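so my prof wants the structure for this chain in the tokens format not the other one, which i didnt know existed until like an hour ago. anyway here's the sequence
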Amino acid sequence: MKKTPFVIALILICSLFSLATVMVEPSRFILKIEPGQKQTGVITVINAGLIPTTLNAVLYDWQLNEEEKLQALVAGTRSDSLEKLIKFNPKNFTIQPGQAQIVRFTIEAPTDGIEHKGIVFFEENIALAGDGIGANVTSRIGTTIYAAPVDVKHSLLIKELRPFLDDEQINLLFSAHNNGTGHLRLRISYYLQNKQGKTLKEGSINELVILPDDEKIVVEPITKLSSGEYRLLMQVAFYDIEQRFEHTAEFSIP
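here's what i got, hopefully its the right format
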């Protein structure tokens, strides 16, 4: 009998999450702003659930951890924070089921020559209490914002782009350093061919994000190969940047 309140609390949490479903549009802004100017934007927050939801809009800094997952930080922690550049309204609101709330923001152009970034999370706090057992559950969903001056520098130093063999498995190795002042989003495509030029396999690594001053190492397994001569055609393409990098490597399997 002592476990009953805990079980009820868990059921209540699951029920609330299943009834309140929040979505945001768009999920990302990438802005380039003229010096001395401001740019505005609109975030649409939608309650697609069955119960009203009360949300708080909170700005955070963010970075990628060692597992390439977004790690939220208190706003103002990083030198590329949006904390002093952005204003948004409203910050607290309730949305009825099936309705939407418009959140408007204004961002000033950075003056330090680098890209600034942040994430606006829309957070809902659910307080549960009963028989001396209390808990606060926070659910949140967010929109990522990049804001850069128009003269932001985009530069990528590709250190390695080649095939390598590991226990009969051919892999694609990509190593690069972002030595610019703005983030890069790129796509790596490859075509594996035999000596006669027949394509044996093709694939891609989609939307790889490299933040300024970050280094990225990617190992993409392709396939196992028998003895013979092959070539690997590789291409690095950028989102919102026309420049591309192509490289072909010939190799043999003994």
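also thought this was worth mentioning. The chain has a mean pLDDT of 89.
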